[in-house]
Amino acid sequence: MDNKNTSSNFIRDIVIEDLKSSKVKEVVTRFPPEPNGYLHIGHAKAIVLNFELADEFGGRTNLRFDDTNPTKEDTEYIESIKEDVAWLGFKWDGLYFASDYFEEMYNRAVLLIKKNKAYVCDLSPEEIREYRGTLTQPGKESPYRNRSVEENLELFERMRRGEFKDGEKVLRAKIDMASPNMNMRDPVLYRICHASHHNTGDKWCIYPMYDFAHPIEDAIEGVTHSICTLEFEDHRPLYDWVIKECEMECQPQQIEFARLNLTNTVMSKRKLKQLVDAGFVDGWDDPRMPTISGLRRRGYTPEAIRKFCREIGVAKTNSTVDHRLLEHFIREDLIDKTPRTMAVLRPIKVVITNYPEDKEEIFEVDYNLDAPEMGKRPVPFSRELYIDRDDFMENPPKKYFRLYPGNEVRLKDAYIIKCNEVIKDDKGNVVELRCTYDPETRSGTGFTKRRVKGTIHWVSARHAVPAEFRLYEPLINDDAEGDSENFLEQVNPNSMEVLQGFMEPSMKDARPMDRFQLIRIGYFIVDNKYTTDEKIVLNRIVALRSSFKVKK
RNA sequence: UGGGGCGUAGCCAAGCGGUAAGGCACGGGACUUUGACUCCCGCAUGCGUAGGUUCGAAUCCUGCCGCCCCAGCCA
Length: 552
Hints:
CATH superfamily of the largest domain: HUPs
Low-confidence stretches: none
Distance between the termini: 46 Å
Strand content: 15-25%
Number of strands: 27
Largest sheet: 7 strands, mixed
CATH class of the largest domain: Alpha Beta
Structural class: alpha/beta
Strand order of the largest sheet: 12-25-26-27-23-24-13
């Protein structure tokens, strides 16, 4: 894979220490998504961490679906998650489902009951909440807490047999209702849920809770380092309790790190879903979405995402990474991988008045001067051309190197032209520029008699191929992601701009997902959803950096 | 005002008692047939804050301040 410049982080330090002290003999990690949504860049951080950590020390990483809640999960997500992890470039060792372990979990729950460490509770959900107490007040014990082992055993079995309705009973751990850690106040281990499971069908009507299931899953798989996000820190005592009381042979250790936040976007499933449902975006794979599928359609590469994930580091500090760091890595990755071609997004016609009407030249131009092995393509030149409106100003400010009346610019890989006349319509809009070219200045002839400050891109009008260009801006306006319910107010209404322009003829056979650097404009990818045989649609992956700041 | 965490530059982040890495961003310059790329240079007398220990503290101790998480039969 690509060069890994694994930087130090506290989890890696722990692993190194555990190996050194022989606490563990090998490193086993896992990526444990719940199949209830699409993966996003935040998941990528966890994926890269888990897979590369194990990989660095010759260990293993499992992909395990944490499917303990049939009401929220769906098999549709399983495929998309597998696809995304694979696309990111990782091969899992084992592919598992928490639901594969349901029988084992049930047996461990029975063990807990026999040890008098768990009991069946008849309190309603509301009552359980009331009995739990508050952050500052201890809870009180359930009246069902002291049922006999025999009665608990029988009740739990009847729960499994389906003799009770949803919510009628739960299995709870018997820990400490006065614990300052809310998670230890007799947490629910199993709930009744008469729902069909994507994997186990109707075999079960009781399902284990995360806090009970997760440590057992890890232990069964021999996971040594169970890496999760910060909000589970409070759950660690319970995680350890389950491992110990269920008498698991393997004792994984849970380590928490801060999840990724990015500026100008949102990462929560809920908010992402809101964007989709409200129609602000075109679906989970809209190129503006921070989902893996969105980034893929946008044109990001797995390499760029991986490098980004390494660079941001792993720590416990809540942080929000500047989205421009992600942009940095896609530019860096694409610079020597993409052919460089020309397209005009906002066309304005240029007529070369001293160029014969029936004449036409074909220039053979390198696809990428920095990667000559990409070869050359023919670029036709003729009397009428298109250039970008941004490259002409009738009344330019100082330091404007582009075209204006009386000024000369070089047409990239062609001639130097001079603007002589500006044609306007009735309303005063510039509709055409009349220029003359200097035949002596043709590219490749070694002409050095005079230099011009500006070089602009162009397309021969006669040969131009119409295309649609989609330019993107951040989904969320500048100020930090608010917590408000109406975060939709922060959505950038101008996050997509659609332009009808022209591209050079060499691009006419481009296929979906082909990438280009459109010279002076940015990196683009052929959209795989809206491109048809008739028309190519290009998404701008990222603009080129620019130090040009002159305002019109 | 219970418990668990976290505070190093605009944004990430290394640092683990010996005198503040690196990246992004930003500013300046060189080069340039992409105002791109590349290359130089600059960018924390300072590590939330106040004390203390020490020859020496971002690192150790104490107090304070700020921010995040926890009261699902979600994960």
